[in-house]
Amino acid sequence: MSGSFSIDGVTVPFTEGQTIMDAALAAKIYIPHLCHNPEFVPQGSCRLCCVSVNDRMVAACTTPAADGLEVANETHEITTQRRLLLKLLFVEGNHVCPACEKSGACQLQAVAYHCGMLAPEFVHFYPKREVDASHPEMIIDFNRCILCELCVRASRDYDGKSVFNISGRGINAHLTVNSPSGKLGDSNFSAHDKAARVCPVGAILPRNHAYETPIGQRLYDQESISQVGDVASHQ
Ligand code: SF4
Ligand code: SF4
Ligand code: FES
Q1: 128: Cβ contacts below 8 Å, ≥ 6 apart
Q2: Pick from 67, 74, 59, 89: which is nearest to 6 by CA?
């Protein structure tokens, strides 16, 4: 089956099996998202990609495209809802952008700019999370993890290693490393793994390569994420 539907009044073609997100990406229409990467099975957890389809809110990354759908993406109400989700993500972790190696190449920061978020506004949780610097090539700063599970899916489905997992629920949910000590250095993770290159934020970072690309020359320093797309597709 193939056909077309509309996003904010623009006609978008689709083919059998595509989701609204797949068709939008192919048509170069940006639907804000964080837990989606077209290389992996969508899981619909961040809810940032929610769009209105015939007046019902659905996740664009998990909803099949269908002929004649009328999708609203960049309305005032939807953008306001996205800003709310983004503000919550910022206060649930410890995000100090000026001190973060990922600044300028971070999807969370870039989507927040795109959605017009100026400040988190809510009370910060200030969770206490230790940095895992046990691996010779990579570090994990759990303070910046947004639980998108892209590293989990990449390690399990692409690398065949299942190095990462999410444990706990709700506010207690957190990323874990499958190794005897729970440390990355005690796992079979490698800097060459797919999972080392999918993190949309500054949670999984290579060691000894900080600031190789100067601030001001990074992916989102010149152009909006709506123009250049996901950081993972540029790595
Ligand atoms: Fe800012 Fe992104 Fe770093 Fe968080 S991960 S501190 S949002 S640049
Ligand atoms: Fe997502 Fe990065 Fe956290 Fe993995 S470490 S769950 S890729 S934010
Ligand atoms: Fe669709 Fe996260 S990108 S729910």
Answers
A1: none
A2: 67
Ligand at minimal distance from the CA of 106 is 1
| ipTM of the prediction | 0.99
Q: Determine, yes or no, domain membership for 24.
A: yes
Nearest residue CA, atom 1 of ligand 1? 97
Do residues 54 and 164 share a domain? no
Give the closest ligand to the alpha carbon of residue 142. 2
Question: Domain span at residue 20?
Answer: 3-74
Identity of the residue numbered 174? H
Does 60 share its domain with 123?
A: no
What residue type is assigned to position 172 of the chain? N
155 and 217 housed in the same domain: yes
Would you say the CB of residue 44 lies under 6 angstroms from ligand 3?
yes
Provide residues with CB under 6 Å of ligand 1. Answer: 95-97, 100, 102-103, 106, 108-109, 144, 201-202
Look at residue 81 and give its three-state secondary structure.
Answer: helix
Ligand nearest to the CA of 132: 2
Give the type of residue at 221: D
Q: Is the CB of 151 under 6 A from ligand 2?
A: yes
Element (H, E) at 152: helix 150-153
Residues 123 and 170 in one domain: yes
Give domain status of residue 115, yes or no: yes
Provide the domain count of the chain: 2
Residue-wise pLDDT tens for the chain (235 aa)?
A: 789 999 999 999 999 999 999 999 999 999 999 999 999 999 999 999 999 998 899 999 999 999 999 999 999 999 999 999 999 999 999 999 999 999 999 999 999 999 999 988 899 999 999 999 999 999 999 999 999 999 999 999 999 999 999 999 888 899 999 999 999 999 999 999 999 999 999 999 999 888 899 999 999 999 999 999 998 888 7
